[in-house]
Amino acid sequence: MPVPDESKLPEPRSDAVILFGVTGDLAYKKIFPALYAMVKKGWLDVPVVGVASTPWNLTQLKDRATQAITSSGKIDDPDALNRLLSLLQYVAGDYNDTGTFYRLKEALGAAKQPVYYLAIPPTLFETVIRNLGATGLAHNARVMVEKPFGRDLASARELNGIARSVFPEDSIFRIDHFLGKEAIMNILYFRFANAFLEPIWNRNYVASVQLTLAENFGVEERGAFYETVGCLQDVIQNHLFQIVALLGMEPPPYRGFGGVQTEKTNIFQAMRAVNPDDVVRGQYESYRSEPGVAKDSDVETFCALRLFIDSWRWEGVPWYLRSGKFLAETAAEVLVQLKPPPQRLFQDSGPDPGHANYLRFRLSPISAIALAARVKHPGKEFVGDQHELCLVEEHFGRESPYERLIRDAMNGEGALFAREEGVEAAWCALEPVLKKHPPVIPYKRGSWGPEEADKLIAPDGRWHNPESKV
Questions:
Q1: 372 CA to centre of own chain
Q2: DSSP class of residue 172?
Q3: What does the alpha-carbon distance between residue 69 and residue 36 come to, in Å, rounded to a whole number?
Q4: In the chain, is it the N or the C terminus that has fewer CB atoms within a 10 Å radius of its CB?
Q5: Are 282 and 303 contacting, i.e. CB atoms less than 8 angstroms apart?
Q6: Is 331 buried (19+), middle (13-18) or exposed (0-12) by CB count in 10 A?
Q7: Pairing relationship of beta strands 172-174 and 142-145 according to DSSP bridges
Q8: 273-285: pLDDT as tens digits
């Protein structure tokens, strides 16, 4: 994992955490448990100020935090919980009212370099950022912005402009919590820590790359939100594109996060614009009956697309991405399909992709890396089967993505966050299909999506469907 550039002095650590949207669902399910874990490990000992429009008092906020931590698992360190509760403060008020921000300034007291976490709807990003600037709260501060960062290229550029008018780029931390997962960071390490991979990691040996992020549940209580984004914007533009960048990037020139971000941005900029023929959009049956969903909704709960990266390394190699709700499994996996041997010496080593070697990265729910190779059957005949050499790595109690992201933002380390140029380049690749795309195709719950997705990948083989086992 890259570390900050050793030629630079360490950035000063944030001396307060301000959580906008502290009464919301994200704070309840993810952020409070992460803060509790950080206190247990000795990583958090600064004030935590919650801000929301809910007319609560501090006692109610502490009760909410305790409930959130209890719901995420047992409270195994009561002293740590009490330390976290002692750090909490609460400011209630309207985000459109600058008075709310002046009360926040009072609550911050002597803090000189706070970090603001915007766990709020994207429609409120501009309001909060501008008011932080107008009231002098942005000076020497950092800001963490939850996804989605924009809904298309124009809105991303507008939001970047607003954020940059108040904060310098190095103080803006655009969150993609997927990048905080241990298995995602391991892709970067595995690629550049092992010499055997580099000679084959290119168009000469790789036939195709597949990325699947599947969920076996629906939108649950988030139908109204999902209507505003859909699978393409909610998952593919950020989560899967970030994985593509880690898989496809060139070696960074140094270990600092700036080098990593530059090479990732180069991949986004090299992505060929996706056209409607490269996309299949699906919608699970009964989605339109979900609360908050339009009866004639054309929002996709499944999306598969074909992508090309016009670079020296990857020219002509198709990348197939898919994600969806109510699929057969809940899993995230990458399959790098290698080309077959150049000469067919054996009957079962022909051009069929099912007979060729591959590398498989299981990202969740358990982390694993597997290499598939053919092994001969005993006997006189030269025939065999494909077998996997599999390394499974699952450490319980590891740092959660939100712990890592909050800690990195507090330390000014930006390796796991998206940069301005990368965000805009990723939207640019999808711009054609955001404006013009095929209608959604219904698919059965518990399936692997509409059959049209199989036709999309057919010229290069078939989808590898992740199994419940590793």
A1: 27
A2: E
A3: 7
A4: N
A5: yes
A6: buried
A7: parallel
A8: 999 999 999 999 9
